[in-house]
């Protein structure tokens, strides 16, 4: 439920690159979670 201090954001398009996937999968062993890739 949306509270009085919340907003709703409608995402129309989104993109992700190969580097983001490598980081999310921790393929290089250096990722820290939680993370915001991109």
Automatic annotation (TrEMBL):
Domain Alcohol dehydrogenase-like N-terminal stretches: 4-38
Domain of life, per lineage: Eukaryota
Coiled-coil stretches: none
Keywords, ordered alphabetically: Metal-binding, Oxidoreductase, Zinc
InterPro entries assigned: ADH-like_N, CAD-like, GroES-like_sf
Record SUPFAM superfamilies: GroES-like
Single Gene Ontology MF annotation: metal ion binding
Annotated protein name in UniProt: Cinnamyl alcohol dehydrogenase
Protein species of origin: Pinus nelsonii
């Amino acid at each position: 439920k949306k509270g009085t201090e919340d907003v709703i954001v409608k995402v129309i398009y989104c993109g992700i690159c190969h580097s983001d996937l490598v980081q999310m999968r921790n393929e290089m062993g250096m990722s820290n979670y939680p993370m915001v890739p991109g």
